[in-house]
Design a protein that fits this description.
The protein has a domain at 1-49. The chain has 5 helices and no strands. It has helices at residues 3-26, 31-49, 51-61, 66-124, 128-150. Helix 1 (3-26) packs antiparallel against helix 2 (31-49). It is rod-shaped and about 90 Å long. The chain starts with a helix and ends with a helix. The mean pLDDT is 84.
């Protein structure tokens, strides 16, 4: 490997490593996702220092050029990362949909309670004893519905 190319590879891998650590520190990148990126950055740095290792592995596997082996491995790694990210995005999408449905149901329940309170106000003309009785009815009906959901 040419000295200028070696310096370039070492510089780029070092900058990647520092950038990944900075993103983790700022909270822009989660730790579990950064481990693979740090590992890849470390491998690039290692290959920049010991480029002959890549040539030796390529010769052992019967690949004519070390760069071809590196490109093939990089494509496999990119494909694996893409699959992993797709799985994560799919699960988050399902979770988001479930949360949106739950919020809609809670909003509906709030509207129902508001309507019920308005009805009670009209019937009882704001009498305090009626409020206590009405609140007890609401609480007991909520507890019964929670028991039904738990079963």
């Amino acid at each position: 490997m040419f000295p200028i190319l070696r310096i370039l590879v070492l510089s780029v891998s070092s900058l990647l490593f520092v950038a990944i650590l900075e993103l983790v520190r700022r909270g822009k990148l989660r730790e579990e996702y950064s481990l693979l990126l740090l590992l890849i950055s470390g491998i690039i740095f290692f290959l920049g220092v010991f480029g002959e290792v890549l040539v030796g592995v390529a010769d052992f596997l019967g690949v004519n050029y070390g760069s071809s082996l590196l490109a093939g491995v990089a494509l496999v790694v990119i494909f694996a990362v893409q699959i992993a990210q797709g799985v994560i995005i799919s699960s988050l999408s399902l979770h988001s949909r479930d949360l949106a449905q739950e919020v809609a149901e809670l909003e509906w329940q709030i509207c129902q309670l508001r309507d019920y309170i308005r009805m009670l106000e009209e019937q009882q003309n704001g009498h305090p004893a009626a409020w206590v009785k009405a609140m007890r009815e609401i609480v007991t009906s909520d507890e019964e519905s929670e028991k039904e959901l738990a079963i």
